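Problem 12. The chain below contains 400 residues. Write out its predicted structure in token notation.
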Amino acid sequence: MTELEQHTTDTAQGAAQDGPVPDPWNTSERRALRELATDFTRREIVPHLATWESAGELPRSLHRKAAEAGLLGIGFGEDIGGAGGDLRDTVIMTEAILAAGGSTGLMAGLFTHGIALPHMIEHGDPDHIQQWVRPTLAGDTIGSLAITEPDTGSDVASIRTTARRDGDHYVVNGAKMFITSATRADFVTTAVRTGEPGAKGVSLLVIDTDTPGLGVSRRLDKMGWLCSDTAELHFDDVRVPVANLIGAEGSGFLQIMHQFQTERASLAVQAYATAARCLDLTTAWARQRETFGRTLSSRQVIRHKIVDVATAVDAARTYTRDAIDRALAGNPDVTKISMAKNVAVGACDLAVDTAVQLHGGMGYLRESEVERHYRDARILSIGGGTTEIMKEIIAKLMQI
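Solution.
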């Protein structure tokens, strides 16, 4: 008997003796969370989403409403002002919001704290928690993460924004690009160069946006994510207290790389959840849309297109959830997370393209939900590390 066969036999025998293993993704608490997120989305988001897209940003009041509903702090400990839960809970919430008619642009704008706060939380400075983490999880303040620069994207070790020590302050000079929620943010968790060239010279500073010398150079108009404000920032002799340093000097690169894995897993979830929403919308459309006296779903070629999407969605969901299960069990796998992001993005690309194609002319109109998903989906293969960067990471870890 092979090792795999023995493992399968042992697992089956254990299951027979102990009964079925509970599904951690389908507990009563998580079913209640899914219902809560679904209801909130249908009531507080969907009726206003088109207006927010036209405005180019979300209202601050939505953050407070989401906090009051118990959604804004999902995945963050109650001891720091969060609602509790872990990465599985944030996945359930994301799936529910998108399934109910939300968008990835909405997710980016409303949950930017998911990338702005973790470095502070991991370091655990009580003053940082009190000053920035708690108010943000309460919906009273908004945070951004500023890493990307006009000439530097995934190559974090090459950032040029400098932070020169001057007594009890750092003096920050430089620029940041493509910063989500930057026009509304109260603070920006910022990657700066405090030391030598390369990864060892990178640090993280929290900078309040009302600090003199920090400003929005320009608001950026994008293809998608229209309700998520994005901007370029400039730092001109911005004086930042040394107390705002997150962790030790020179530890910023490792902090960023560690948090990237969660961000990439979250983007994978957004990708397959968008694909699942488009699958639902397209299936419903195919059942009721008639051409030449027959519904679209009566045609084999259409059914097979939808089956291809359904297969891709299920594979992406299964693969991504498995990667998350491993991470929560203490066995994070960078290769698997990188693969999950690429697999989920591929499923999303197929789903949004199929959705627009089968909706025909209606799919090309702004009034169609699938049109928004088509535009929004394009950033998912770029943000958090491009598809090409993911492949390069995988290749290196495979030692090929």
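Discussion. The chain has three domains: 28-137, 143-250, 254-398. Students who got a different answer should revisit the alignment rule from Section 12.3.
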